[in-house]
UniProtKB/TrEMBL annotation:
Belongs to the peptidase S9C family. It comes from the Bacteria. Residues 450-658 form the Peptidase S9 prolyl oligopeptidase catalytic domain. GO terms for biological process: proteolysis. The keyword Protease applies. The lineage of its organism: Bacteria, Bacillati, Bacillota, Clostridia, Candidatus Avichristensenella. This is S9 family peptidase.
């Protein structure tokens, strides 16, 4: 067996977008892996034959995105393979090219070109399609222009790239860029005529949508000046070219919509008890009004965290009188189904992860991480799980891995759940350095699934300690509710869990402790170095330093900070400052590495720069590595070469101070 190395993740296969054919005989998904030059990812379509169990790769160009089925034998996917179209996009024109592929063989064929950037497509029939597209409220309609008029409009757009005009908040969005006056809008595309007709209103940003009885059911939030956290539910009838409002904006934060037993249903939260993080309940639309069906005190569609995913997929499905969904419960992901009366059946207990799934008849397929494996394709039939793929089997077969061992530690009136990962080649007679790894969110959760960075550190001779303090997902809203308490009870939980790990594993050297985390974990890392000197080194990633500056600069700051800290710069500004790690930076003595990205608009780079400056000002060893062209997802979806450098920076930093 060989030791797992930092660069091994460049060969991992990341699975996503699993979807059954209409006849249930095949399923397609996307598998992505790092490009040879490490500049991005190759994405290809794979096909699974349900009847024979055969698995084969369908495309090899590396440019295939998530797909849809046109019929039982034909896949629709987007890829830019036309040189003339590529030239037009390079000039600034927004285009999405779609191709079809016969699963029985042959080359992909051009299908249609949509004059917009498309994020999702659904087929109404063989000629009409619903596209979710990027839309600029004050921009030219390029689809209606030709010749010199189009060239003039494109030239005007190119000149506008030299400046930004801001009129609303949020004015940018992580992973997207500046969003002023931009929306996601639904369009009806008729292939036979090439006509692209808007469905949703120009000032409305569309979230989820689905098809029902030839109509389009969608959720959108209309705003001018400031986006609110509530949205509305709408039904578009293509036959009548009319839209009906089902739920007015202002009552709910609606997250997912579908059909159950012939009724329109939707997951939504009123945000009245636990604020933004309140788990949604399931409502039905009855006599034009929302009727509560059930509330489970959990977040359907949630999952345990990992740095070994790329791309998404279906996590909630309405089918056959049931709603199927994944959900984080304690330290694992369960797959359940619940009927309209609230009766639940657990299809998969909370173990490992379920990253996406689909259902056809009695056959349920899912992509997940089980045991110490990376993502693979699995079947669930008659309560039995069967692995169908071995795309990442080499890692299990050839690399040394350390299985996370569960640990439970009391803290106040709760028990904190987590894991300890022992060093590879663990010797009980030796003492080892230890890294405390803190998850983001805070309403997310760690589990026992494969985590590349943690397995790397175990192979480098470290203990790794991870847990789910109060604020985490998986144990209901009350456990997750730390509004107004950041840095208090959650800090106590983390320190007590670390103490419990040291007591349970005396081989951990308490004089060689490191701490790291990203987003909320970065906030907590910044907080920790200002409140204790027990750590010899820290690595703070995409962090929060100052709740006041974050309020006015990040894409979620103006509503997230007010909700989570229970204050604004004008209402109790001292509370915002009290919970800010920057306030305590003069107490820090821990050498700290800061990792940030210049396009991280969730925790803008000003947060990392402030903490870095504060430590350098007070004479504490500090280093900041800023990644250009990356955002908040650097560690999970950044360019492979940047992900390598990030992990090298952190690993080398700990080696310098903890060895």
């Amino acid at each position: 067996m060989e030791k797992l190395r930092l660069r091994d993740f460049l060969s991992y296969q990341f699975l996503s977008g699993l979807i059954f054919s209409p006849d249930g005989r095949h399923a397609a998904f996307v598998a992505a892996t790092a490009k040879a030059d490490e500049s991005g990812y190759d994405r290809n379509l794979w096909l699974f034959n349900v009847e024979t169990g055969a698995l084969r790769q369908l495309t090899f160009g590396g440019d295939a995105s998530a797909c849809e089925w046109l019929d039982a034998r034909t896949l629709l996917f987007s890829a830019m393979r036309d040189a003339k179209l590529s030239e037009r996009t390079e000039k600034g024109e927004a285009l999405t090219s779609y191709l079809t592929l016969d699963i029985d063989g042959g080359e992909a064929r051009p299908f249609c070109t949509v004059p917009a950037k498309v994020s999702r497509v659904r087929a109404l029939d063989s000629n009409r399609f619903v596209f979710l597209c990027e839309f600029r409220m004050d921009g030219p309609d390029l689809s209606a222009l030709e010749g010199e008029a189009k060239n003039s409009a494109l030239e005007a757009l190119r000149k506008e790239k030299d400046y930004e005009v801001l009129e609303e908040i949020p004015f940018w969005r992580n992973g997207v860029g500046f969003t002023n006056r931009k929306r996601k809008r639904l369009y009806l595309y008729t292939r036979s005529t090439g006509e692209l007709s808007p469905i949703s209103q120009p000032d409305a940003d569309v979230g989820s949508f689905g098809l029902w009885d030839g109509c389009v059911l969608y959720v959108s939030c209309a705003f001018e000046g400031k986006m609110e956290r509530t949205n509305g539910l709408f039904l578009y009838n293509p036959a009548a070219n009319s839209t009906r409002t089902l739920i007015e904006q202002g009552q709910f934060n609606i997250r997912e919509v579908g059909m159950l037993d012939g009724e329109i249903v939707f997951f939504a939260s009123r945000m009245q008890t636990y604020g933004l993080n309140e788990s949604p309940a399931l409502y039905a639309l009855r006599d034009g009004k929302p009727a509560l069906l059930w509330a489970k005190d959990e977040a359907p569609g949630s999952n345990v965290g990992s740095d070994c995913r790329l791309g998404g997929g279906q996590s909630i499905l309405f089918a056959g009188g049931w709603v199927y969904y994944t959900v984080a419960r304690h330290t694992g992901t369960a797959l359940v189904r619940v009927n309209a009366a609230g009766r639940e059946e657990v299809l998969l207990p909370p173990e490992g992860s379920v990253d996406c799934f689909d259902l056809a008849g009695e056959t349920l397929l899912f992509v997940g991480m089980r045991g110490m494996r990376l993502q693979e394709l699995y079947a669930l039939q008659a309560g039995e799980v069967r692995r169908l793929s071995a795309l990442n089997e080499r890692i299990v077969a050839e690399k040394t891995l350390s299985k996370p061992e569960p640990l439970f530690v009391p803290s106040d009136d709760v028990t904190i759940e987590g894991f300890v990962i022992k060093p590879v080649d663990f010797d009980p007679a030796r003492r080892y350095p230890c890294i405390l790894d803190i998850h983001g969110g805070p309403k997310t959760a760690y589990g026992s699934v494969f985590f590349h960075e943690m397995q790397l550190w175990a192979n480098e001779g470290y203990f790794v300690v991870l847990c789910n303090p109060r604020g985490s997902e998986g144990r209901g809203d009350r456990f997750a509710d730390i509004r107004g308490c950041y840095g208090t009870i959650d800090y106590d939980d983390l320190m007590r869990f670390l103490d419990g790990a040291i007591a349970a594993y005396p081989q951990i050297d308490p004089q060689r402790l490191g701490v790291t985390g990203g987003s909320y974990g970065g906030f907590m890392t910044n907080w920790i170095i200002g409140h204790t000197d027990r750590f010899r080194a820290a690595a703070s990633q995409r962090s929060i330093a100052n709740w006041i500056s974050k309020f006015c600069t990040t894409d979620i700051g103006y509503y997230f900070n007010a909700d989570q800290i229970q204050a604004t710069p004008w209402h109790d500004p001292e509370k915002l400052w009290w919970h800010s790690p920057l306030r305590y930076a003069d107490k820090a003595v821990t050498p700290t590495l800061f990792i940030h990205s210049d396009e991280d608009y969730r925790c803008w780079m000003a947060e990392g720069l402030q903490m870095f400056t504060a430590l350098k000002y007070h004479g504490i060893p500090a280093r900041l590595c800023l990644f250009r062209g990356e955002n908040h997802e650097l560690s999970r979806g950044g360019k492979p070469c940047h992900r390598v450098r990030r992990l090298e920076e952190i690993t080398n930093w700990f080696a310098a101070y903890l060895r």
